[in-house]
Amino acid sequence: MKSDILVALSVSPGISGVPALLLAVLLAAAVFGGTVWVWPRLAGRGVRPVLGRAGLQLAVTLTMGVPLLLAVNTSYGFYGSWRDLFSSRHDGPAPAGTDPSGRDGLLVRGTHSWRYEGSDDPAVIGRVEAVTVRGAGSGLSARAYVYLPPQYLRATARRRAEFPVVVAMSGFPGTTRVLLDLFRYPRLALEAVRAGRMRPAVLVLTTPAVAPPGDAQCVDVPGGPRAETFFARDLRAAVASHYGLTRDARGWGAMGRSVGGYCALKLALRRPDAYRAAAGLSASYEAAKDADAGGPSGGDARHRQENDLLWRLRNLPQPAVFLLVASSRAGGHQDPRTEEFIDAVRPPARVSSLILNRGGPTYETWAREAPPALEWLVSRLSPP
User: Fold this and answer.
1) What is the mean pLDDT of the chain?
2) 3-state secondary structure (DSSP) of residue 352
3) Residue 27, pLDDT above cutoff 50
4) Distance from the first to the final alpha carbon of the chain
5) Cβ–Cβ under 8 Å, residues 140 and 234
6) Which residues of 24-46 are buried (b: 16+ CB within 10 A; e: fewer)?
7) CA–CA separation, 173 vs 78, rounded Å?
8) What is the pLDDT of residue 152?
9) pLDDT interval class at 158 (50, 70, 90)
10) Of 299, 293, 258, 252, the residue nearest 272 (C-alpha)
11) How far apart are CA 247 and CA 240, in angstroms?
12) Whole-angstrom distance, CA of residue 196 vs CA of residue 138
C-alpha cells in the first residue's frame, strides 16, 4: 500500500533562522565599516597602532565567520539555541515521585522547563524529563529527553501501558536539544492531540550517535559498538520499565532526519520485533562508509550489504511494518533513491511518502515534515 501526503507548513525561526543570520551580517558589516573608518588613525609603528590594527583584523575575521557558521547550522540543525551552543548541561533536580537511581537502566537527571500558551503546568502541557539510558546488553549509554503527555501523567498504571511510544532521533552531527528547540516535538504532539489529529503518545528524543566521537549509525559494528542492540533492546527495555509502558513492538515507532531517518527505517526493517513503524525525513538509505575504517561495517562487505536498506528490500523477505519516507519535488531535497525505496517496498510491508513541493536540506524543511510525519507514525501504532 503506497500513499502520498502533500503538505505546505511553516515554522518559527530560532538560532538557525533568518533573524539571527541577518543580525550576524549586520554586525559584520558594522565592524568592517568601523575598521575602514578607524584604520587611518592607527598608522604608525608604535605598539598601540600595531595592537590596534591586529585587534581590528581579528574582529573582522571573527564577525565575518559568524554568518557562515550560522548558515551551516541553518542547513543542518547542529544546535537548536544559543543555550544549546554554549552549555553542556541544562538539568535541574529530579522531579518528585521519580526514581533517580537508574536501577532499571534509566536515570532521571532533571526536567526541561517549557511553556505553551502561557502555561508551564505539567498537568496541562505534559512534562519533559532529561534522562540517561544505560544499555545492559550493548554497554552503551545515551542522554535523551522523554516527553510525558498530560494524559499519561494522570493515567493509571494499566492505562499507561496502552500509550504508543515514538523514538525521535536527530541527525549526525547534531544534539538532542535540537529536537526540543528547533523541532519542538512536545509542542507538536500537544497541538496535534488538542486538535484531534493524534492520540497522546510518549516521545523519546535522542541522537543516533551513542558511541562518540564516531557515528555507529545504529549498526552493530563487528568488534565495535553495538548501536543497533542499544536502540532495539536496551533503550526500549529501560524506557518501558521505568515508565510502565508496553514492550510490544506494535506500540513502538521510530522517526528521524538524515542519519536519524536511516536509523529509524533500518530498525523497522531489521528489528520488526522492536518497532512496528518508522518515518525517515531526508533519510539516507545505507550506512556511510569510512574510507579508513570501513565504516560501521568494519570493512565487512556482507555486513554492509545487510545494512543497505535498498538491498534488503530487493533481496530479503519484508516484515509487516509501516514505513514513511519524506522528500521534495524540487529544491535540492530530492534523493533519487527515495523513489527506488518506495518502488522496492512490497507486502506485507507498507510505505507512504510525504512530498513537499519544494525544500532544501535545512531544518526548516525537516520541521515542515515533522508534524505530519509524527501524526502518521502514531496512527500506525496500536499497543495491545
Assistant:
1) 81
2) strand
3) yes
4) 23
5) yes
6) bbeebeebeeebeeeeeebeeee
7) 6
8) 98
9) very high
10) 252
11) 6
12) 39
Residue pointed to by grid coordinates 501504532: 381
How far is 244 from 154, CA to CA, in rounded Å?
A: 13
Residue among 106, 94, 383, 98 at smallest CA distance from 239: 106
Q: Is residue 149 a contact partner of residue 127, using CB atoms and an 8 Å limit?
A: no
DSSP 101: T
Q: Could you tell me the three cell numbers for 363?
A: 531544518
Sign of the Cα torsion 210, 215, 219, 224 reads negative
Mean pLDDT of all residues in 32-44? 73
* pLDDT at res. 90: 37
For the chain, state the CA radius of gyration.
23
* 3-state helix/strand/coil string of 174-219: CCCHHHHHCCCHHHHHHHHHHCCCCCCCEEEEECCCCCCCCCCCCC
DSSP summary character for residue 129: E
Question: Cell digits for 229?
Answer: 542492540
C-alpha cell at 210: 551513542
DSSP state of 253: E
Please, which pLDDT band fits residue 97 given cuts at 50, 70 and 90? Answer: very low
pTM comes to 0.75
Cell 502533500 belongs to residue = 6
Burial class (CB in 10 A: 0-12, 13-18, 19+), 372: buried
| 222-235 residue pLDDT tens | 888 899 999 999 99
